[in-house]
Amino acid sequence: MNELLNVNEVSISFRQYVQGLKQKNLEVITDLSLDVREGEIVAILGSSGSGKSLLAHSILGILPENANQQGKIIYKGQLLDEELKDKLRGDEIALIPQSVNFLDPLMKISDQVIGDCSEEEYPQKKKKQEELFKQYNLDKDVEDMYPFQLSGGMARRVLVSTALMNNPKLVIADEPTPGLDEKAVAETLKHLKQMAENGVGVLLITHDINAALEVANRIAIFYAGYVIEIALTSDFKEDGENLLHPYTKALFKALPENGFELTEGHQPLHGDIPEGCPYFSRCPNSLAKCEHERPHLINLGDKKVRCFQYEKEEL
Ligand SMILES: Nc1ncnc2c1ncn2[C@@H]1O[C@H](COP(=O)(O)OP(=O)(O)OP(=O)(O)O)[C@@H](O)[C@H]1O
Ligand code: NI
Question: In this protein, which residues make up the domain named ABC transporter (predicted)?
Answer without folding.
Answer: 7-249
